[in-house]
Design a protein that fits this description.
- The protein is of the alpha/beta class.
- The protein has two domains: 229 residues, 3-Layer(aba) Sandwich (Rossmann fold), CATH 3.40.50; 82 residues, 3-Layer(aba) Sandwich (Rossmann fold), CATH 3.40.50.1100.
- 32% of the residues lie in helices and 17% in strands.
- Helix 3 packs parallel to helix 4 and helix 7 packs across helix 8.
- The two termini are 36 Å apart.
Length: 349
């Protein structure tokens, strides 16, 4: 259980917007027609975790909240982690280490990248004084091997190693807090389904572990990469096999060819969705918009009235899946669905 006091909370130190609000999503695709031409409606809500913070938003904050709290009280001298060149996890962790004045090393997948101009994600990391080490695919595949990690720990003198995507047992603590927020904000009946994208598995495991039957009836993950079976294993490694969890499964029909892969159809969907004006006010205990100024070269702000935006790697695939499943009649009429926006919009740059 989370036991941090409200006066000594890492959320205060980083100016995190919690609880993130719930927003009603009303578009033309929340209506579907049955075989007799009869129109039916489903109710869709979005947990706006993209509003948590301008840099460390979504599940990146949720998964890092517990480690960062530990860092605040007992700072390590050097943190190391892994990710690809557009990694939301590395971007968020690099920013946090900069704020906490902790040395940070990022092991980047792609040895060829060290000869190229850095993309904006890597530029930010470099500007935050991160040490970037580019490795080939074969070396990167060793990122979970004990001998390789021990070698890195010795060579780089890193006293803390955080797995790729922040996927470790501590990540589940932050998801517990998110589920508690949803429970407090939901004034109606339980959700028929909760949907969220799945990449490294810890976020979905956290939802499964903490979601009571009074909040939802099932949990559906939308695979963001082509990895049927592998993603299930990533989730179950964090779960107790003897605990009776809510029914859950991962849908693998919407990865669009693999991680960070897209199609014209998905790109167009995200672009059109981002042009929508969702006038339904968000549900939050905060009465006024909260500005989160990060004191970067270009200030980044996150407000309660920020439009709902999608990117094609995670949130776009999840919303596209939801639209498709609704139109296919997967959900019963009058179903109440919650989709979790896991942030990560920086990668779309």
């Amino acid at each position: 259980m989370l036991t941090y006091s409200s006066t000594d909370n890492i959320e205060v130190q980083f100016t995190i917007l919690t609880p993130s609000p719930l927003q009603r999503v009303e578009t033309n695709w929340t209506t579907f027609f049955d075989n007799h031409g009869q129109a039916h409606q489903v109710e869709v809500w979005c947990k706006r975790d993209d509003l948590l913070h301008g840099v460390i938003s979504g599940n990146k904050w949720r998964k890092l909240a517990k480690p960062l709290q530990d860092f605040w009280h007992s700072p390590p001298s050097h943190v190391l982690s892994f990710g690809g060149p557009y990694s939301n996890h590395l971007h968020a962790l690099g920013y946090c280490c900069k704020k906490l004045k902790i040395k940070f090393t990022a092991i980047i997948r792609g040895a060829y990248l060290k000869e190229r101009v850095l993309n904006r994600t890597l530029q930010d990391l470099r500007n935050w004084n991160a040490n970037l080490i580019f490795v080939d695919k074969q070396t990167y595949q060793k990122r979970t091997e004990k001998n390789y990690l021990a070698k890195l720990r010795e060579e780089i003198d890193a006293d803390v190693i955080i797995p790729e995507g922040g996927s470790q047992q501590d990540a589940l603590f932050g998801m517990q807090a998110m589920i508690a927020e949803i429970s407090l904000a939901n004034s109606g009946p339980p959700f028929t389904s909760i949907l969220l994208p799945v990449g490294s598995g810890a976020s979905m495991a956290g939802v499964i572990e903490n979601c009571p039957p009074t909040l939802a009836k099932q949990i559906i993950g939308i695979g963001a990469l082509k990895a049927e079976g592998y993603l299930e294993d990533l989730v179950t490694q964090f779960l107790n096999k003897d605990t009776p969890y809510l029914p859950w499964h991962i849908n693998h029909d919407f990865h669009f060819g693999g991680y960070a892969k897209s199609t014209n159809e998905l790109t167009t969907f995200c672009k059109q969705f981002n042009q929508l004006k969702l006038d339904t006010p968000v549900k939050s205990k905060l009465d006024t918009p909260l500005s989160l100024e990060l004191k970067l070269d270009t200030p980044v702000k996150s407000k309660l009235d920020t439009p709902l935006s999608l990117e094609p790697v995670y949130s776009g695939k999840c919303f596209f899946a939801l639209k498709t499943l609704i139109q296919q009649g997967y959900f019963a009429p009058n179903s109440k669905i919650l989709i979790i926006h896991t942030g990560g919009l920086q990668g779309a740059r």
